[in-house]
Amino acid sequence: MVEIDRSISFDGRDIRLTVGLLAPQAGGSVLMQSGDTAVLVTATRSAAREGIDFLPLTVDYEERLYSVGRIPGGFLRREGRPPEKAILTSRLVDRPLRPLFPQWLRDDLQIVATTLSMDELVPPDVLAVTGASLATLLAQIPFDGPMAAVRVGLVGDDFIINPTYAEIEAGDLDLVVAGSPAGVIMVEAGANQLPEQDIIEAIDFGYEAVQDLIQAQRDLMADIGIEMVHEEPPVEVEPTLVEFIRDRAQEPVKQILSQFDIDKNSRDTALDAVKAEIVAAIAELPEEDPIRVTATTNSKVVGNTFKDLTKKLMRRQIVEDGVRVDGRKLDEVRPVSCRVGVLPKRVHGSGLFNRGLTQVLSACTLGTPGDAQNLFDDLQQDLEKRYIHHYNFPPFSVGETKPLRAPGRREIGHGALAERALIPVLPPKNEFPYVIRVVSEILSSNGSTSMGSVCGSTIALMDAGVPVSKPVSGAAMGLIKEGDEVRVLTDIQGIEDFLGDMDFKVAGTDSGITALQMDMKISGLPLEIIEQAIKQALPARLHILEKMMQAIDQPRIEMSPFAPRLLTIKIDPEMIGLLIGPGGKTIKGITEETGAKIDIEDDGTVTISAIDESKAKRAKNIVQGMTRKLNEGDVYAGKVTRIIPIGAFVEFLPGKEGMIHISQLADYRVGKVEDEVAVGDEVIVKVRELDSKGRINLTRLGIHPDQAAAARDAATTNQ
């Protein structure tokens, strides 16, 4: 293939698309570049495997540490398991891409995006999304594209396309918009409590930029001479089989879907019974009957056809009757209940959130600064996570059995979404130095567990005494689109997510939105429908928020007695080495003596933590004593620690000793040190001299009674 370039400019920032240069044996490949960030994206197609009844699409985002001039850590010194950021980027590429493949496609497809170079300005993720579209087109895979994505930031009052890392950090919005010719297909956003209208305008702004990238792909394809592929779908299921199933299942399924007083499990059991009757009826047909032959040849055809019928009937009931399978109105939220403190206080804070059959238990743990997550073997540098949100989805939550494995992409993605939703309301480090970890355990799932995690985690944080600025709630919006008929659903449950067209999660406070995530199962939506969904989510969020506030209306003043107590002091950075000591000997000694944990930052911030506050205070006094700058003439109350022939050593500050020469013990001649003081005696001393070797010489002479009284009071206060 001849090498061809195409460039698009947004506010002076170019995106360059290059094909025909790299990976010639891949089905399609493109090098996406902006600044010094370069991402190679490939798309490859293999023949379908026998028995596959779904689209086996694999999307992988690969980071190479050479792209930022670093060598991997660990024993092997090579990249290993993908870091969390890479997994989230893989999901970001997959989500807008998957709905654009035809539903009948069963070939193995693999999209691989590899960051080859990355600068400190341009994030590679949106380049990978657009590159996946172009690589798919070049591979001539059936695809309802082109598709593209841009990031939208908010700097001051102005939206900008593809902001730098610094602009994202400083702004109030980090929004990724992906779109196709049919409309917006994916939204991912974190926001600092922005009003709904601002979010809507940002999505519109981003989609306009997406159109330029879509046109660039079309122009490049035309220059190469490659046309969009439109393959014919395979032969449909035997019509007589469809009719056979419809005739026997349509009325029973309609009756089941209109029984609003039954729960999810009863509904699923009833539907399974209808399907079992159909399977039994087919088995009674003659062996040569075409219906039985078709069902026997493809064991999954009956189940798929039954699912399609159920989907059609459920959607028709919503569109035509305006009623959902549980009898709710389209904008109605399921029953909500909340409880806090459901676990013993050894768990620092806990919250139980129920919405319908969805149940989430969130547990909050308060840690010390040393618990921050700051070792990432990925392309990000100097990153410290003080808030960590983990999401667990065990199989029993949906009544299933399967082996327990490490968290998958879904668990990581949902945890990251809840984390993003709550970060805007967490207190800054200088006000609340704790590291916070929240774990959301999904105990029962019937739709929108990620938003349930946001709600449960908010009340768990408040139960733990974390001073959040405002509580955050969330709701998942759904969509049914039949031709020109569109219905937006509030608080979707499992069947509406599974058989619907959209899963749009909206989280925020009563002041504005903090996080968005929209995924589609159709090829795109116009902005006015997205606007309707965002605005319809607001009363739902406020209703849920009201229920949460009934359980706990403000963060607790008192923390769990098992949470660490933190004391923070500031020392001269030049004293850090003295505090740590050779090989860490000094700081280890303080920890062993007091039982407190000590964390030191480069700027001289020292955080001391212990479950027992008295231990933390003892360690604080030692640190302050060791690092306090002394002045000649300062007066202290101290204790004699040892005696030598020429004088006595006195610990006058925690961890700091000086010597009183025998001539400075009294205003008369002293024959023996033991005649004046003994080990353990409390004495008032004054700093007489700080010599060139750092030694501290003390005296008992020339101390005014008022100075002595003040020193005793200070010593008593610091005990």
Automatic annotation (TrEMBL):
Domain S1 motif span(s) in chain numbering: 633-701
GO biological process, one term: mRNA catabolic process
Keyword Chloroplast included in the entry's annotation: no
Keyword Metal-binding: yes
Keyword vocabulary terms for this entry: Cytoplasm, Magnesium, Metal-binding, Nucleotidyltransferase, RNA-binding, Transferase
Catalytic activity: RNA(n+1) + phosphate = RNA(n) + a ribonucleoside 5'-diphosphate
Transmembrane domains' residue ranges: none
Signal peptide bounds: none
Localization per record: Cytoplasm
Main location group: cytoplasm
Entry GO CC: cytosol
GO MF annotations, alphabetized: 3'-5'-RNA exonuclease activity; magnesium ion binding; polyribonucleotide nucleotidyltransferase activity; RNA binding
Binding site for Mg(2+): D497, D503
EC top class, as a word: transferase
Cofactors required: Mg(2+)
Function: Involved in mRNA degradation. Catalyzes the phosphorolysis of single-stranded polyribonucleotides processively in the 3'- to 5'-direction.
Cited HAMAP family: PNPase
Family recorded in the similarity comment: Belongs to the polyribonucleotide nucleotidyltransferase family.
Protein name per Swiss-Prot or TrEMBL: Polyribonucleotide nucleotidyltransferase
Gene: pnp
